Amino acid sequence: MLASIIASGLAVGAVYALIGITYNTMFATSRVMSFTAGQLGMLGGVFGSLFALRLGLPILPALVLTLACCALIGVVTEIVAVRPVLKSLDQHLYVLTTLAVALLIQHTTAMEWSTEPQPFPRVLDLGSGIWDEKYWLPVVVCILTILSLEYLYRYTLVGRAFVAIAEDNFAARALGLPERNLRIASYALAGAIGALAGFAGGQLLLAFFANGPLLNFYGFIPVALGGLGNNRGAVIGGFLLGLYQQAANFLVGGIFSSVAVFTLFIIVLLAAPQGMFGAQAVRRV
Amino acid sequence: MKITRRTLALGGSSLAAGAALSVPLATPALAQNEPIRIGWLAALTGPSSAPGVGFNRGVLFAAEAINAAGGVKGRRIEIITRDTQGDPTKAVNATQEMISQLRVHAIWGPTNSGESLAVTAIMARAKMPNIHPCVVDSLIDERRYPNAFRITPSNTQWDDAVRSYCLTRVKAKKVAVIGDTTGYGVSAVNASVAAFQRDKAEVVYKANIDATQPDVTPDMLRARNAGAEAIVFWSVSTGLIARLLNTRANMNWDVPFVGHPAMSSGEVGSLVERPSNWEKVYAIGYRSCSYDASGNLPPRTAELVQRLSGKVNLQDTLLWWVASAVDAVQLIAKAVEATNSTAKEAIIEYWNGLKNYPGYYGTYTYSPTQHNGYPTEEVVMSAANSAKNGAFALAPGY
Fold first, then answer.
1. Which of A35, B83, B170, B230 could form an SS bridge with A98, CB 3.0 to 4.6 Å?
2. Looking at the partner chain, which of A1, A205, A253 has a beta carbon nearest the beta carbon of B207?
3. Domain count for chain B
4. Residue B110 maps to which CATH number?
């Protein structure tokens, strides 16, 4: 039983962590908390099932198409919901616009895809029992993603440009960085990461439109716990959240497990409002 | 303006004239030939729309059949449909519209208990004759809602059928009762556990599992460790059902699942990892829509299926949805025919006097003190994976 809780806890934790990274990626270059992150995760599962099962494509092209579609939706989010409100960030209008886009995505999916959960295909068909692919795939994908992002941000020009925009918008623009294009690129990247989260977690969460708001809530907690903009904190927060949630499901039962999760969340934030790992990354000068 | 006797006299007489002129409009001379307007509150889109779509097929078929045969004493049946999308607010608005503006003679629906809970009081205030297929017990109250009649079994009758199957045919002495975390799941599980305990059976495990919980192994392990010989299940979540059945198979456990009809829905078939995971699952069904051991439907239902073939698709829906909707429209039509009136009180009084009315879906008996008209004996358990043309094979033991 403990093994089962750990396996499923780490797996859903990895999905939450990836959604947290999605939030962070969108926040980093635009300072906007976009509530479409969870919907992108949901679409990762839905598109994956659509391309691989309903349209019968092999798994790799299905994955590529899913990433492409969600990246496109990320870009559309940026144009429609984020760019118009960038001028008045202090009025927090982005809450309204991104939430509206999120609801549009959710209800369109419910109408066009299905209101019942649909099956998600096996990806590699490796493992069984607690070593089943649906448990280790999200964890492996999460670790690979975080390593790739570290590589991107540290060793590639584009990644360092992202970091520059995130650290100091005006200085970056003064240096001639194309802020708007970089922002669009980062939203596309965030869309792809969200899709990856949904695709990797598809066998656990199934292709279900109601995963959208679920991932929105539970994907936000790692962000709050780890500090906004802090990817490593989001990953650790995500895994801890996943383990705690599955343990709570087991110990107090389904009805009260979300009460347990949010109670702990409130307590942690009261104790450490900047998140467990602090808000500002120390900048070397 | 100064109120004088003159203004009073002028105002009063014009008011009286207006009233006199409008009275003939309220009761037109052609009342006896106007169509019989049946309001249909359907959740045709949105979540929980699969039953609505099924019912709709039955409604349209029945109306068309009656009209093709000349209508009810020459009067056409007119179905006025409003898609409530499963939303109680939309259901309330549509009900108000049907009562005040469209002036329907009777209402069939809503199709979901949540919507029905919202509109029952409104219909009662308007004394609107109402038949609906929703199962929540509190929807029927002969004193508070004398206008509301239920065509399906109530949740208590479902629970009785499931419990009786577990105790007498599966012969389980220890049961686990599992539901989801919705309002329905919690109340259904509580009622079920209480009823089992009243029948002196042992409930060894009781759980409410969140429908989105990705892994249900801990819950199934605990049920097995407690010695459950049957699992009673109350939820409409097909994702949760599939997860439980897959986990049962992975544990190599062959405990029977007995309970909610959602276990027999097509979605479960596509979500289980192997078809064999769907074996030994017994979902609530109805004798009228069940195949016996030789693969035959009861004669009356077979006749309905014959009439439906070519006109109504049964492959992707349930036969009892279509059949009950046909019955509902015919109950309204028969009421108008027998009483020669579309007055609300007349329709309600006719329904209150029905004894063993032979419908396709069931044999209904209503009285002024009993508006749950479906006989509990006709609720049976079906083999969940045996769907054929919307009907199921009887579970073993009948």
1. A35
2. A253
3. 2
4. 3.40.50.2300
